[in-house]
């Protein structure tokens, strides 16, 4: 569940419900999606949780892909863990696990004013047997650290039963005993220095420092690190912003467990922390060899769109169209002058969409692929592959466009060369965002607008493509033409296939551009990415201007027909206004 959907859709509604109820709705819903055959891919597509390989770290043989984990307090009854494994965490805390379950009346309380969760004491636990039952259904992707609570005998017994699932354990300082032993690392929660010396520091894997208040947490970490520099430290709680996470890591913490902050800041906090960490490293990847080929691919689409725009303003019907129809443009206009205007309307909207698509391809190539960003390459690949497949729609409408094939053959080598020579691209995005400021929050609403816009384009492209290979016309089209399809077919049996070709071509182009807008909106929203805002602005204008202009130029101004375009323009403007400050804001100051 990305932040744009969490804050923009779900949180305003779920915050009205009891904390336990809203938690279970979210966790069960996410787990249901994760359990679907393509569920993990859907989660990755929407949230794209990834981090570079040099975030990897090891503590006593446990390998963590990044330092950010999820506290067991967030999902003590394990209804959401099967989904959390796909949300980019470096590790997940399970528990607390007790031999017997706690009473069901023990539930957390949300303090929205102070942005804190008051967890029950004792914290909810489903008991050892239920925990084992649920763990068998979870596909593990990262280390599981189990928090255990009980007597020495109970701890030993639970460690033995959980050994096949656990990578390590967390035990309360009050419960630890010198004779407690496991082959897996054991971390002690909130121990005193006297206890650490009593247990022999060299035999201890590390400690867990738990605080709700960030400054107290930071001070405690510094104190432990000053006295025992070699001690591995995991912090739990206290982190609501990426800047706070960076401060704790800089002070000596090795790993972080998110709790309250994950709920109030949103599920994207993990991703934001990783992006901030990468921004701190300021790592610059060498440009891959194939980025220019992708750029030329976009340039030729832009040029093709400009030529199509020129034709739609002048002749509209090309010589090979007239050859297929067996008549000149003048004959068609003499029969019904609105037919040529209607064809100009389809061809100009296609041209504007191609120009917009070309601009976005070029921007993704130059600012994304050139910098080694995997998401930018994948955005191009998804949209380009879909666009190439559009040529096969001729099977449905029966008119094969040889110019379309020629254009396809010109583009294909550039795309293939770019794809082959960027296969090694693996870079992940960085961000200057460190705070939960209002600019960031407003950008989420803007991102939601752009995501809905992208989905709308994709859906519109599919519908228009389908119309192109089936009924061709919508009711408002026939009202504009002032005649039914039967008369058009009687006039020229090849006329409807040509119109269908234009319609399906526009639908295919709109689908491809929709995928570009959607993936750019889902994956490219990092603070300081001025180029993303400019891409959305400049890339959107040709499609919107040409689409609205031609309808008014030919007198096809049906409000019902243009309503989707008006809706799209509203989303476009809202998105631009809400995200401008975020994209143009430089890096936030660090809290260190």
Description:
- The protein has 592 residues and is an alpha/beta fold.
- The chain has 24 helices and 12 strands.
- It has helices spanning 3-14, 19-35, 39-47, 81-84, 128-135, 152-162, 193-199, 214-227, 242-251, 260-265, 269-281, 291-313, 319-325, 329-335, 337-368, 374-389, 394-397, 402-420, 438-468, 475-481, 485-491, 495-523, 530-554, 559-583, and strands at 57-59, 62-64, 68-70, 91-97, 109-111, 116-118, 144-148, 168-172, 186-189, 206-210, 232-236, 255-258.
- The strands form 3 sheets. Strands 3-4-7-8-9-10-11-12 form an 8-stranded parallel β-barrel, surrounded by 4 helices. Strands 1-2 form a two-stranded antiparallel ribbon.
- The protein is elongated and about 100 Å long.
- The two termini are 30 Å apart.
Descriptive tags:
alpha/beta, 592 residues, 24 helices, two-stranded antiparallel ribbon, single chain
Could you give the topology of this structure?
Blueprint lengths: L2 H12 L4 H17 L3 H9 L9 E3 L2 E3 L3 E3 L10 H4 L6 E7 L11 E3 L4 E3 L9 H8 L8 E5 L3 H11 L5 E5 L13 E4 L3 H7 L6 E5 L3 H14 L4 E5 L5 H10 L3 E4 L1 H6 L3 H13 L9 H23 L5 H7 L3 H7 L1 H32 L5 H16 L4 H4 L4 H19 L17 H31 L6 H7 L3 H7 L3 H29 L6 H25 L4 H25 L9
Parallel strand pairs: 3-4, 3-12, 4-7, 7-8, 8-9, 9-10, 10-11, 11-12
Antiparallel strand pairs: 1-2, 5-6
Helix pairs in contact: 1-19, 2-3, 8-9, 9-11, 12-15, 12-18, 14-15, 15-16, 15-22, 15-23, 16-18, 16-22, 19-22, 19-24, 23-24
């Amino acid at each position: 569940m990305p932040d744009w959907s969490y804050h923009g859709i779900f949180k305003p509604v779920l915050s009205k419900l009891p904390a336990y109820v809203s938690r279970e709705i979210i966790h069960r819903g996410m787990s249901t999606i994760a359990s679907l055959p393509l569920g993990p891919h859907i989660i990755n597509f929407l949230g794209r949780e990834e981090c570079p390989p040099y975030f990897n770290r090891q503590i006593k043989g446990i390998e963590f892909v990044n330092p950010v984990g999820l506290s067991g307090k967030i999902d003590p009854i394990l209804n959401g863990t099967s989904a959390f494994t796909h949300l980019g965490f470096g590790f997940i805390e399970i528990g607390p696990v007790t031999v017997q379950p706690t009473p069901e009346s023990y539930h957390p309380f949300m303090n929205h004013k102070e942005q804190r969760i008051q967890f029950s004491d004792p914290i909810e636990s489903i008991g050892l047997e239920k925990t084992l039952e649920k763990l068998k259904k979870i596909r593990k992707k990262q280390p599981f650290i189990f928090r255990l609570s009980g007597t020495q005998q109970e701890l030993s017994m639970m460690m033995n039963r959980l050994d096949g699932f656990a990578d390590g354990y967390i035990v309360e300082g009050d419960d630890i005993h010198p004779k407690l032993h496991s082959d897996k690392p054991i971390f002690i929660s909130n121990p005193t220095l006297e206890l650490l010396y009593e247990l022999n520091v060299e035999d201890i894997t590390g400690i867990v420092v738990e605080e709700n208040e960030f400054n107290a947490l930071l001070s405690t970490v510094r104190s432990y690190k000053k006295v025992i520099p070699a001690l591995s430290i995991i912090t739990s709680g206290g982190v609501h912003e990426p800047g706070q996470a960076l401060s704790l890591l800089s002070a000596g913490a090795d790993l972080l467990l998110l709790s309250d902050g994950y709920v109030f800041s949103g599920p994207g906090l993990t991703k934001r922390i990783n992006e901030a960490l990468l921004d701190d490293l300021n790592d610059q990847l060498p440009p891959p060899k194939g980025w220019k080929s992708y750029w030329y691919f976009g340039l030729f689409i832009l040029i093709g769109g400009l030529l199509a725009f020129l034709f739609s303003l002048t002749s509209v019907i090309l010589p090979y169209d007239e050859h297929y129809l067996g008549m000149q443009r003048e004959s068609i206009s003499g029969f019904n002058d609105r037919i040529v205007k209607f064809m100009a309307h389809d061809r100009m909207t296609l041209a504007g969409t191609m120009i917009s698509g070309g601009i976005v391809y070029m921007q993704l190539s130059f600012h994304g692929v050139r910098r080694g960003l995997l998401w930018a390459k994948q955005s191009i690949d998804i949209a380009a592959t879909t666009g190439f497949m559009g040529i096969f729609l001729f099977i449905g409408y029966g008119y094969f466009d040889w110019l379309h094939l020629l254009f396809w053959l010109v583009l294909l080598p550039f795309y293939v060369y770019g794809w082959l020579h960027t296969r090694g691209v693996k870079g992940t995005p960085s961000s200057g965002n460190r705070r939960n400021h209002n600019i960031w929050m407003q950008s989420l609403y803007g991102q939601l607008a752009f995501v809905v816009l992208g989905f709308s384009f994709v859906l519109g492209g599919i519908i228009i493509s389908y119309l192109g290979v089936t009924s061709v016309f919508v009711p408002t089209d026939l009202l504009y033409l002032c005649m039914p399809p039967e008369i058009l077919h009687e006039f020229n049996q090849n006329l409807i296939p040509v119109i269908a070709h234009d319609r399906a071509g526009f639908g295919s182009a709109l689908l491809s551009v929709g995928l570009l807008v959607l993936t750019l909106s889902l994956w490219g929203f990092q603070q300081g990415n001025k180029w993303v805002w400019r891409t959305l602005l400049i890339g959107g204008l040709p499609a919107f201007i040409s689409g609205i202009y031609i309808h008014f130029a030919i007198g096809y101004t049906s409000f019902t027909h243009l309503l989707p375009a008006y809706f799209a323009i509203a989303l476009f403007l809202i998105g631009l206004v809400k995200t401008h400050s975020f994209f143009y804001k430089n890096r936030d100051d660090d809290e260190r």
